């Protein structure tokens, strides 16, 4: 009997080892095209992927897009071309640890560093003296608030903000409900390394699917592109470090919510109300109570946490109405 278990163990150990080191998936043609039309700049020795498209003639307006967790700049692909018809330049980056950018480990990822990455890109592109419009989502919302704070306080910011449009980000810790896996990864130093290696496409698809509406689920190809972006450069192995942003939001709430409530930069919120992470009506009621200078667009009731992907037309209409209002 003992010898039987030994044989099973000898078979299982290499199988588990192979499973835990499955190579990342190949890029789809759509993702390959996104990658091939991008560029790289260096930030403190790390490579940061970005896209920079020239658009509308006769306009000098610049828009910078800040993506969410755990995805990438590809989140903006459905609204990219319409934005280039309105803005002179449309720019998006993959934050450090995301998408096609470097994913150093071990590394202490922080919102402050990501804001500096954005400032570094702005300086690299020669836009330090240009007023820029920010559009952000989820994790990118908090990066945007740090940029807003630096801009308002004139603290060596390379960014002069013309406007800020937020969407479905956990701005208020008291109304934010991270998913169970996120909580386990950010708070369990023992479980996190195991969970990161055990997380596979099926687990990822289920988790991401839960934050999309039932009628706006990604296609199989779109799910796979999200997973491919995460696995690129072993991004699944830095999730626990990146997820410390949830704790940072709580620690620095006064700084980031304070600048949101006091700024005179034009603000807008585009909100998918079916969002389980920032649920309706608690989140939007608190936002409207605290951020009274901001305008708000609440999309259709079936739109959830990824409004730019679930309802790109509604998202664009809301954003263009905001931009044309000042």
From TrEMBL:
Gene Ontology annotations of biological process type: acylglycerol catabolic process
GO cellular component: endoplasmic reticulum membrane
Subcellular location: Endoplasmic reticulum membrane
Pfam families registered for this protein in UniProt: Abhydrolase_1
Residues spanning the membrane: 5-22
Superkingdom of origin: Eukaryota
Domain spans labelled AB hydrolase-1: 62-312
MF terms (GO), sorted A to Z: monoacylglycerol lipase activity
Keyword annotations of the record: Endoplasmic reticulum, Hydrolase, Membrane, Transmembrane, Transmembrane helix
Membrane topology field: Multi-pass membrane protein
Family of this protein: Belongs to the AB hydrolase superfamily.
Protein name: Mesoderm specific transcript
